[in-house]
Amino acid sequence: MKRRRVLVSSAVVLAVIGGAAVAATTLSARDTGTVGKDTGLPPATASVERGDLSDSTQVDGVLGYAKERKVNAGAAGTLTWAAGAGSSVKRDGKLYEIDGTPVRLMYGAGPMYRTLKTGDKGRDVRQLEENLAALGYTGFTVDDEYSALTADAVERWQKSHGLKETGQAGPDQIAFAPGAVRVKETEGAVGDQVAPGRPVLRTTGSERIVTFSLAVAESKSVKVGAGVSVGLPDGSTAKGKIASVGKTARPGDDPQDKTPKIGITVAFDEPDKVGGIDQSPVTVDLTGQTRTGVLTVPVDALLALSGGGFGVQVVENGTAREVKVELGLFGQGRVEVSGGGLREGMKVGVPKI
């Protein structure tokens, strides 16, 4: 009985995202003219391999920085200096100057929205005291109350920076941010008039991240904490994890494709080792399922058998025979196979390259 022998093309894997695989097979007739007429041997062979197999998909992303925010002026006057774009500012470092008076960075989740003085209470008082203590200005209890001892510490801090020793601290001298910042851009030029509430700088955190978007249907399979590999502009790769998956879909940036998409953020395992220019394009490999210690063959080795199912052509001792196999995970141009007496190191037929 004549058997119909059909080759499965290497386009079998269409998409794999966050542990969910979507596979489709495209079948095309084998070019029987390339098979040896006398021996029935295939034009080329490949090895059956044992190892780990992962399905993955690659998407385009953008390398940037985390936690973009604006820094508003804390007083009215003339902008006389501002930290330059790309510069990093740490605790007690200068962000900008108004009328020659510097506004310095302190760490805290809440804003510096009032001038603090003896007798004041609140979380902003604790934030200020935590920073003073971290800078070595001690002698008070870190709590929610601005005491005379707190005022004394503030006077010592002011003296160290050549400021008038008032013992009071407000937005004209201090701006709070969650941590060290990187200046993304200035909102005005030196010499401009500024006023409270008007943006002076745009900053980000110092930590490198990658952002990308996926169609809503695809994003459902991406889970926070899932591992990824990022291809960087210099040709190197860096490991990371999905840090956040957006909750709101927005139209894509491509004018030809307005499919609603979800924004996704990747955090690096070792962010301090990631270089590159801000807003550089990168590629993100999203790893889905992983199968360990399985037998695999190239996708092009698969045959669609006339009786149904799939098989491979095993080549041994100068002869070839077809064996039926069960298929598992697809990924990296290979497919997991079992059955048919397959063993690691066996040779299977593939199209001639």
Describe how the helices and strands are arranged:
Elements: E1 5-8, E2 13-17, E3 20-23, E4 27-29, E5 44-47, E6 49-65, E7 69-72, E8 77-82, E9 88-89, E10 94-98, E11 101-107, H1 123-134, H2 148-160, E12 174-177, E13 181-186, E14 193-194, E15 199-205, E16 208-215, H3 216-219, E17 227-231, E18 237-245, E19 250-251, E20 260-268, E21 280-298, E22 303-305, E23 310-316, E24 319-331, E25 334-338, E26 347-350
Account of the 3D structure:
- It is built from three helices and 26 strands.
- It has 353 residues and is mainly beta.
- A hairpin with an 8-residue loop joins strand 19 and strand 20 (260-268).
- Catalogue the unreliable spans: 1-38
Mean pLDDT: 86
**Overall radius of gyration:** 31 Å
Name the helix and strand elements from N-terminus to C-terminus, one letter apiece. EEEEEEEEEEEHHEEEEEHEEEEEEEEEE
N-to-C terminal Cα separation, in Å? 30 Å
Content-based structural category: mainly beta
Provide the spatial order of strands within the biggest beta sheet: 6-16-20-18-17-21
User: Sheet with the most strands?
Assistant: 6 strands, antiparallel, barrel
Helix content: under 10%
- The proportion of residues in beta strands is over 45%
Total count of strands:
26
Overall form: elongated
- How many helix segments? 3
